[in-house]
């Protein structure tokens, strides 16, 4: 059988299975507004807290570019000072100074005296300085490129988070759909066993069966009621998980629409697509680029740097009438000779980090390939299980009808009927589970190749565009508020 032919058969089986699952749910009371899988995915895309937190992380990463671009911009500082200065001067008189230098003059021959002078000043001044880097070993250019690589990596990480959230939403939806169907089947089984117990009691009254037969029927009924309680508990758990992922309660889900037309046509094609475009791999490659550029940033610290400095200052230091004005323009060249070895260590460390990022990229590629092969196998396996479960249901139904007829003429016991009924129940539950697994596996395969996106699924939601925030902040020179006003 060709690959395309197998794919068509797989899609046909899925459509039949989904119709069967919808039919199994049809006679349950439907609420006024039933959810669809597409609406659940749309809701999760817009309101999932994990996804919104990752979007905030991308917006925070966007700020790395204006921070790096600041290296091209001038640094302007202003200074000012004001104070009070008091000077007290004490000096001898001129006659007293003369007596000290005339030899043979007796003490006291000339009159002695001192003078005291007090002067108060209020020194003050203001100035402005501008520093513009002309060359810093290409550090700024490489820092900008590093920031841009980090942003691209953050966007791919966001895309991967979107895939994970959409897959979790699809899985949670299908779990609720499965549990509703299983609960319905088990409730229907209780009704059938109640009828079996009633018939057994009637036959016991006329002596056709023994007390053992009625006890077996009653035991099976109580076991079925216990299974209903377990199904209700599992349904409540799945609904709680759905609310956690999607952000709203779910009442009655509808049968899921097939996405087989979106899937790759063959396993080699799926592997090739996943290796070329999966966001986890692309994010890892951007991490390699950023780590490599960081090496150049550290190496730039070992190169000369050239700054252009200009300053203007005005001071009033001597008295209120004195004024000193100065200005200067200086070109300053700094050549590093030895800085203690820290920069050399940072370069070596950055090289090891870059090697680590390359290994992590290889790990990401292997993980994505494994996930793709696994998802493809799950799709094929669930498709085969659906076909087997459908055949099992037909055979179990035929066997149950035959056992019931044989029991009427005494060739089968009540236990045989109950066992046949249980086989049919198990087959129906297996079909429901296989149908759920088939849909979930299809979404897992779509995620493994990097196609589980709102655009690919055609979701009717407002797309989140990370370029919007990036364009708003990239060239901002000043401003404390974020683009949304915070």
UniProtKB/TrEMBL annotation:
Please tell me whether the keyword Transmembrane is annotated for this protein: yes
Q: Name one Pfam family in it.
A: OEP
Write down the superkingdom of origin: Bacteria
Name the lineage.
Answer: Bacteria, Pseudomonadati, Pseudomonadota, Alphaproteobacteria, Hyphomicrobiales
Q: Give the signal sequence positions.
A: 1-34
What's the source species for this entry?
Methylopila turkensis
Quick one: where is this thing mainly located?
Answer: membrane
Record protein name field: Channel protein TolC
**One GO CC annotation, please?**
efflux pump complex
Q: Which NCBIfam families match?
A: type_I_sec_TolC
Family under the similarity heading: Belongs to the outer membrane factor (OMF) (TC 1.B.17) family.
- One MF annotation (Gene Ontology) recorded for this entry: efflux transmembrane transporter activity
User: Which keywords belong to this entry?
Assistant: Cell outer membrane, Coiled coil, Membrane, Signal, Transmembrane, Transmembrane beta strand, Transport
> Where found?
Cell outer membrane
- Annotated InterPro entries: OMP_efflux, T1SS_OMP_TolC, TolC-like
Coiled-coil regions, chain positions: 144-203, 379-406
């Amino acid at each position: 059988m060709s690959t395309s032919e197998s794919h068509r058969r797989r899609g046909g089986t899925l459509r039949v299975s989904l119709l069967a699952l919808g039919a199994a749910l049809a006679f349950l009371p439907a609420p006024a507004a039933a959810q669809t899988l597409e609406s659940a995915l749309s809701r999760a895309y817009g309101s999932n807290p994990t996804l919104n937190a990752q979007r905030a992380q991308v917006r925070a990463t966007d700020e790395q570019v204006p921070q790096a671009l600041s290296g091209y911009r001038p640094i302007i500082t202003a200074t000012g000072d004001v104070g009070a200065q008091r000077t007290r001067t004490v000096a001898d008189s001129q006659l007293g100074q003369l007596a000290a230098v005339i030899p043979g003059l007796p003490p006291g021959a000339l009159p002695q005296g001192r003078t005291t002078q007090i002067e108060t000043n209020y020194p003050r001044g203001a100035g402005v300085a501008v520093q513009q880097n002309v060359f810093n070993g290409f550090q700024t250019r490489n820092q900008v490129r590093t920031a841009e690589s980090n942003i691209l990596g953050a966007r791919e990480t966001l895309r991967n988070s979107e895939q994970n959230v959409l897959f979790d939403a699809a899985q949670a939806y299908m779990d609720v759909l499965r549990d509703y169907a299983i609960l319905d089947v088990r409730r229907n089984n209780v009704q059938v066993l109640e009828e079996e117990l009633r018939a057994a009691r009637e036959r016991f009254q006329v002596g056709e069966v023994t007390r053992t037969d009625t006890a077996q029927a009653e035991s099976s009924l109580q076991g079925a009621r216990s299974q209903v309680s377990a199904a209700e508990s599992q349904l409540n758990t799945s609904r709680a998980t759905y609310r956690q992922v999607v952000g709203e309660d779910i009442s009655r889900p509808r049968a899921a629409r097939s996405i087989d037309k979106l899937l790759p046509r063959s396993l080699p094609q799926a592997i090739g697509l996943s290796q070329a475009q999966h966001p986890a791999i692309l994010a890892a490659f951007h991490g390699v680029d950023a780590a490599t550029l960081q090496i150049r940033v550290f190496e730039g610290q070992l190169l000369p740097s050239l700054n252009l400095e200009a300053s203007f200052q005005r001071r009033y230091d001597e008295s209120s009438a004195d004024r000193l004005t100065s200005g200067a323009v200086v070109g300053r060249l700094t050549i590093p000779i030895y800085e203690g070895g820290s920069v050399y260590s940072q370069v070596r460390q950055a090289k090891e980090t870059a090697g680590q990022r390359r290994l992590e990229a290889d790990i990401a590629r292997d993980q994505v390939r494994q996930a793709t092969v696994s998802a493809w196998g799950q799709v094929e396996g669930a498709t085969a299980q659906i076909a087997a479960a459908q055949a099992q249901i037909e055979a179990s139904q035929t066997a149950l009808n035959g056992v019931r007829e044989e029991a009427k003429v005494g060739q089968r016991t009540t236990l045989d009927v109950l066992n046949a009924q249980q086989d049919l129940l198990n087959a129906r539950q297996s079909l429901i589970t296989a149908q759920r697994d088939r849909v979930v596996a299809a979404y897992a395969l779509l995620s493994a190749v990097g196609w589980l996106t709102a655009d690919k699924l055609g979701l009717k939601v407002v797309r989140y565009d990370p370029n919007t925030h990036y364009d708003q902040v990239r060239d901002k020179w000043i401003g404390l508020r974020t683009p949304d006003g915070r």
